[in-house]
Amino acid sequence: MQITKLPHSNIFIETKDAKILIDPGTYGSDEKTKKIWAKATHVFVTHKHADHFDAETISKIIQKGTPIYATRETATFYPKTKFSIIKEGAEIKIGGTVVRAVKAVHGYNPFLKGEKEVHEGIGFFVESEGKRVYHTGDTICFENDYKCDVLFLPANNHGVCMGPFEAALFAKETGASIVVVMHCESEKFPTDVEKVKKEFDNAKLNWKFLSAGETIEV
């Protein structure tokens, strides 16, 4: 399985069966990123915020008929986009690859009052070739028994996601052998990189800040 980290919370996973694009948001406007988006056979969206789904660009780039999976709240927010509705617990089987929608709890602060508040956020597990990749989506810390090999999670805090301390604890519980920090491009809700490094080192995690376009194999 090959995983390419793209801007913000956007990742691209290539398995023997599929090319899976998760959270192609508005930070992915460069041509290199768009070329990768165009390869997608399946698109998955964690929640309705534009930094996780650039509806206008995606509609122009992906091949006709490419399924886009998202919650009903996300689909309602983008009425011009055709979605396949999923919710927590749903599984999508693509040959030997399985994508499972799991719990996420998007945080709240007054900047998100009204239509920007997220009531239906989800994360995704992608399982293939004996490996499991977990994309948490935007979430605060919550009790779970999720285990994975590779973890992508935010640590930017500001009430909308986990902060560095709880993100480190959350990551430790998953048993991930590789932890990748995402959701770092937001200027309104910036990530305290030095704090993340300190907390993740204290938790003895094998953590990475991957550059946009950087690829790992698992």
Description:
A seven-stranded mixed β-sheet has the order 6-5-4-3-2-1-14. A seven-stranded mixed β-sheet has the order 7-8-9-10-11-12-13, covered by helices on one side. The mean pLDDT is 97. The protein has 218 residues and is of the alpha/beta class. It is built from five helices and 14 strands. The chain has a single domain (2-210), classed as 4-Layer Sandwich (Metallo-beta-lactamase, Chain A).
Specify the number of helices: 5
Reading off the top of the CATH hierarchy, the class is best stated as Alpha Beta
Overall mean pLDDT: 97
Low-confidence stretches: none
Q: CATH topology, anyone?
A: Metallo-beta-lactamase, Chain A
Strand segment tally: 14
List the main descriptive attributes of the protein structure presented here.
seven-stranded mixed beta sheet, alpha/beta, 19% helix, 14 strands, Metallo-beta-lactamase, Chain A, 5 helices, 218 residues
Brief summary:
The protein has 218 residues and is an alpha/beta fold.
Helix-strand blueprint:
Elements: E1 2-5, E2 11-14, E3 19-22, H1 31-37, E4 42-44, H2 55-61, E5 68-70, H3 72-77, E6 84-85, E7 91-94, E8 97-103, E9 122-128, E10 131-135, E11 150-154, H4 164-174, E12 178-182, H5 193-202, E13 207-208, E14 215-217
